[in-house]
């Protein structure tokens, strides 16, 4: 058996990998597009004439680009129904008049290129748009097969796909596929509703996008067919099993929304609508409320800093991702050791050779290094007024129960929340011990309850008030708290008190902040998610052009939303001048700083202490400099010569002849009246 030295990073690699696999989540999106002849009709949009089918491809292209930036692990697929031919694929069963245009997978440059290069002429050759009006009931049959194909793809992966969010976008211009079914209409309707209930049981959110409304808003009526189909899916989503109850409720609420304009639907398909970017859990933990009582919770980041993704290594010939793996090999036989044989010892040079090595297994070593188990532990309660702004060390995390992790978590979570808020003038906050991962250092966290509210906004698309729950704020330790205003360098006043703004200056600052508010009357509330980061926008712009094989666009084409509007600032000149007068006493702003001394300028003489000044005054330096040989400066010691140099702020380095030459040169430059 091979000996392995102690390596904390290696011991935690597998554990952190398991945590990441549990905490990560993605979404599967399938676009089901009607390939009827009516989709080939054209209309003019912003001076460009394109068909409804080409418009659907354009929206999906933008969706793929947005998903690559925001959620590269999401999977997107495109399926046509009502086609002349059917596709044969290993991933998708063969259904009559169903064609898989883009396989369900994370989008890449090839996916975007395939959607961008879509041409109706080549599509008519294979698979071809069919004329469903020639065969009664064909539209409903093809839609049923298309929904069945979507069900096959959304269940790919078995039980592992249960925690994946699923969405289905149906692009069609047919308000009632059953209008020509005749006596077979009731049977086909029940089969379509059965397909819808199966999708709803998977917590799939279904969205119908009638593109014909782009040219005529009154050309499409949801009528009894599509409303009944969505109601069946919504009812099945609400009746999901416990493992999918939360996702089913979210899907049902989206399908039960009031009818909205097509532009709102188009915005959601493009991915620029806020509600399409669902909050993803950052971590899944257990919260210990009492001995023997634990609940499952998830942590959500309400505000995240957008960063560039980490680079990945790929192979030179096929551009495949390079993966690495490690294993322990027996020194004598060269065989790979299984995990049960992995043991380690902690080396200590002081005790080496005196005692035998203590071999520890991975589990034993992790147990020794674990101070507290991973998760949250309730310690007690404090009034919310005890929490100060200075106690917040970083961004908060929203804590929400996870019923799929431990059953009964929601009920216990709600009971704890009500105990902290209901019937209290001042809410209580829960103080907990927080360990982010196994072997991590514990820290204190405050669970601050948030009052319940309602979701309102423009057309119900912006969530102004969040759901009730707890916000987790990390608390500092005693040595983390600093008081910079108590430092001597900060005490500028003669009375020893730190500088404070006057009441007039505070009032002027408040008026300036109120005048420069980012909320515009009559428009939706300001949100930082509506402004693009110009640095990231340029990064993705160049990366997209290189991936598509195009030349990078010039920098001038980048739109910077962060640049302020000049006319907007000029409207508040009066308030800005009032603030300058209150703070600096002039509308010119703060006084200009003095420029630094130019290179080569003689430096100012340093302060001279009393001992140097007394010793300097004892000698006639001009007279000594005029006498030659030992009658002059040569009779003085090097320490006395440095007294003259220190007094005048000159360099004191060098041997005695260099010091004498420096003094003689300086004396010759001084006026006669400065003789001491």
**Which CATH class of the largest domain is shown?**
Alpha Beta
Number of helices: 19
Question: How much is the radius of gyration in Å?
Answer: 37 Å
Q: What is the CATH topology classification name of the largest domain?
A: Rossmann fold
Q: Give the overall silhouette.
A: elongated
- Which band does the percent of strand residues land in? 15-25%
Number of strands: 17
Task: Describe the main β-sheet briefly.
Answer: 7 strands, mixed, barrel
GO molecular function, one term: ATP binding
GO biological process, one term: telomere maintenance
Family: Belongs to the ku70 family.
InterPro entries: DNA_bd_Ku70/Ku80, Ku70, Ku70_bridge/pillars_dom_sf, KU70_core_dom, Ku_C, Ku_N, SAP_dom, SAP_dom_sf
Topology:
Blueprint: E1 4-5, H1 8-23, E2 27-34, E3 42-45, E4 48-51, H2 52-70, E5 75-81, E6 98-105, H3 109-116, H4 120-125, H5 138-154, E7 165-171, H6 185-201, E8 204-209, H7 223-238, H8 245-255, H9 262-270, E9 281-290, E10 293-301, E11 343-345, E12 360-361, H10 362-369, E13 375-383, E14 397-401, H11 409-421, E15 428-435, E16 443-450, E17 469-474, H12 503-515, H13 534-547, H14 566-570, H15 573-584, H16 610-617, H17 621-626, H18 638-647, H19 656-669
Helix pairs in contact: 2-3, 5-6, 6-7, 7-8, 12-15, 16-18, 18-19
Domain SAP: 633-667
Family: Belongs to the ku70 family.
Subcellular location: Nucleus
